[in-house]
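Practice problem: predict the structure.
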Amino acid sequence: MTEFEDRLRDGLRAEGSRVKPPERLTAIRGRTTDRSSVRRTWWVPALSGVAAVGLVAGAVVLVTGLPDDRGGTTQAAGSSQSPGTEPTTSTTSSAARQVTVWVLRTEANGTRQDLSRYGGTSLYPVTRIVDPVPGDKPGVDAVEALLAYDLPADGDALNIWHEGLGPDQPLDVDVRSVEHQGGVVTVDFAGAVDDPWPTTFASWAVDPALFSQQLVRTVQDALDTTDPVLVTQDGQPVDAVLTAPVQQPIQADDADLAHVYVTAPSDDATVVGPLTVTGESNTFEGTVNWRVLQEGEVVREDYAMGGSYGEWKPFRFTVDLPPGSYTIEVFETSAEDGTRQYVTTIHVTVE
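Answer:
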């Protein structure tokens, strides 16, 4: 080796020693080199230390942007995408987009402390306002909103797609593309979407099959389709989604829907009277009860008609209210004991 080559080698080594890997790479390295054999449980019915504070499920959160773990990377020059593909990109558009994200909530008022005492856990839609990725890609926008939707930890609603198994075991996946072709919607992820926590045993207090239903409903609403959803990981179909086995492509299952849910207005909306509330329901004899409260006092109450006998149908009611702030409750009344069930609560300001 010549003297010049020796000097070049030493110089390259010196420069390389100054390079520090980014924090995300360090974290990835830590996960691959420091695996623990300890098996943990999460959200089992008897789990202690969880705050027993109720949450009004279905709250609407308005955001101006979504976290981007990719650090704003853009598509490389000269690369190409197949028709219908919705790749993620870095910059944001000035025009906000409304998307529907489906989360899980108990079918009665309560908390996560003992989900087993409720009749079950069902899917419930919430509205998100997001900055869309360039190129009019509603599928990617919706999945990114699902991954970013942070729910309070002390309530009765759950979004595993954001929370993972907690701060020390997050869900480390990104959506690569959403493609709608040939009667199938394909959602491709980067990261282990099939089994994100291979060294951890999670004893779910909810049916983990609902996690894939969250994704299916969110994507279908974004693309205005009922076509089934094929979940892939780095371009390859998976046989499980967030630990739960799936049959691909995944069909939406109406049995997982909340019996009563509101589609408009969104929570914390400001509206011009009269106030019109719309939603979908599947209740006993089709009856959907509602009431309007102001400062805790009921100022209006009545009922509307929706679906019944296993069929979800739209309901709608209009109420004329003076300007002010109100709480709207929509629910089913139990035919057995008269208690309120499947309560959906929204807050509105009437101008």
